[in-house]
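Quick one:
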Amino acid sequence: MIKPIYIYITFFIFFVKIGDSFSQSYTRANNWKSYRKEVVFQIGASQFLGDLGGLNKVGTDFSPADLEFSLTKPAFGIAYRYKLMKNINWHNSFNYLLVEGDDKLTTEPYRNNRNLNFKSNVFELASRIEVSLFSNKVGHRYGISKTMGRRKKSRAYEIIGFIGIGGFYFNPKGRNHINGVWTKLEPLHTEGQGLPGGPKQYRKIALSIPMGVAYRMIISKAWCLGIELNYRKTFTDYIDDVSTVYYDRYALVQAYGSTSLLMADPSLGNIPSATVPDGSGNGAQRGDKNKDSFLSFQVTVGHFFAPKRGKSRLRSKF
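Output:
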């Protein structure tokens, strides 16, 4: 099976080659204004970085090294880009992503024994500022001999770095290990949210900081193609419904029912006492307090809106 990373590299090489062969250039200094308004369609893949799943060792969670490529999921979006200046863009987008994590995919003993899993739809609105390295190379009209010759191919493309702010909605679900049904986790208060000594109930709307890089090329006066890597640093630790410690089993059942306990602690039992309080009564670690993050890698197709031209006025001969 071809790993997704090789697919990403292939996409990048493909678009660079296309840009070398077909891209159009801005032939005048201010011709970039003809490409000022653009609607962008995005399609690609998403990944989650949080408490669940990951590599077969500790110490790599929440970093790109912890990506579980078998859980690569779809991502779609639509955006509007406005070029404020030649090298500054304002980009606003709506995105849908599916993110997922599963402890069964790692052989790291403690994560695997924990046996938690989740998936969640993510709906995101984001706004960002883009700073670009803009190429504006125009080929020669004539050959060295100054005779009419074939015009050289020219290029017009941007390498973009960006950062912004976004808001997103999530609603984690876990797979019930008895009947296989995906169950909403937030109503189950799996870490004792709202109970004495437990954390506050988390909100399903959170802020994020999108940041990343993009590459795009102009292929005609109406269209451009590109690729984009977008990493989101979030301000919630509950996209996967996992953050702090295991709550008292009896109190969970009394307050929220047996399903709450089942989804809070489906551990395999391979590590004795891994999910029960220690001798001082402190709860066993279920997750950590690092905030969750997610990312997407997408192919982008942009369509430009032609600028409105002023109406010419007829001058009187008299």
